[in-house]
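sanity check both lines:
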Amino acid sequence: MQAQLQQGLADAAPEELGCSAAEPQTEALGTRRRVLGDEHPDTLTSINNMGFCSNNWAASLRPSPTSARPSTLAADCWATSTPDTLTSINYMGLLLHAQGGRPRQSLSGARRLESRRRVLGDEHPDTLISIGNMGFLCHAQGRFAEAEPYYREALATRRRVLGDEHPNTLTSIINMGSLLHTQGRAAEAEPFYREALDTSRRVLGDRHPLTVTSIANMGFLVGSRGRLGEAESYLREALDAGRRVLGDEHPDTLKCITNMGFLLQTQGRLAEAEPYYREAVDTRRRVLGDQHPLARDSIDRFARLLIARGRFAAAEPLAIDLERLSREEFGATHPETIAAIKLLIDLRRMASNRAKAPATPPLQRVASQARPNQPGHP
């Protein structure tokens, strides 16, 4: 659970995520403009809600993986490629790009923020929501330099107005850490993540979602800095808490399951990683459906793990499914489809090469299994 930013829109008030359809929001906005005027707080809220509904925002803010494939490297792969860390950031950016909505959303968000600053003031909770939303939008689009001042302003203001221990302040602390970690600035991110964890444990308790988020964040971060033993401890705690507090099928729990598998994989502990990847792929296919990006990602990860273990027969149905789903979703020439085709070709080539390889004589097999430094070994 990389951050509330990445599990959902951390800075959005519940009313701003509650749009179930665009038509009621359009009607509400029209009525509020006519009766209350463009700068009334309720009108500004409706404008903000329309921005979320127009992009199916709430549906897009599920946890998501990074675009990077699992790596067998240990420390350096954690900096920016940890799976399910850059969750909704990646898919929010893809959604905006696919809809051609980057300039429009940035402009409408800036206008909402400007109106709220003017009408409500810089320290009003709704203004702070808009500041955080602008930071999130820039973050989602990869415009990190633009996102940072929004996040820093939201955090500084909330510290001053609400205090360091308020949940909204903790959310801003997490978001700042998330932005820095996204850019590979792990050393700068660590104080934010550590403060969020220490404060949420003390104020909210170990079972609060923000605490669980902060535990996982620390696991991701120390992993990115090469402290894999410490990372495993945090991630196991986060996974246990996620199962207990959120349930086995919750997106954040599934994210922790995937990341536990990834951590074990980076250490070469493939047999231990397998049940985590298997659980993630089975649950995501059942709950989200095969065409969901997270389900496809889990299929990909699990297939690659099985290939790495030499279990080609078990991996082939997954690779076939991935190739088919990628064709259906993206077309034959999309990079995702090409990667899936290559995976299937490589899998079949490796399986064929193994089948053609001569059997190892029994005595040679026994000798090859002995340790080089075993006493009595020649």
In short: The CA atoms of residues 72 and 273 lie 12 Å apart.
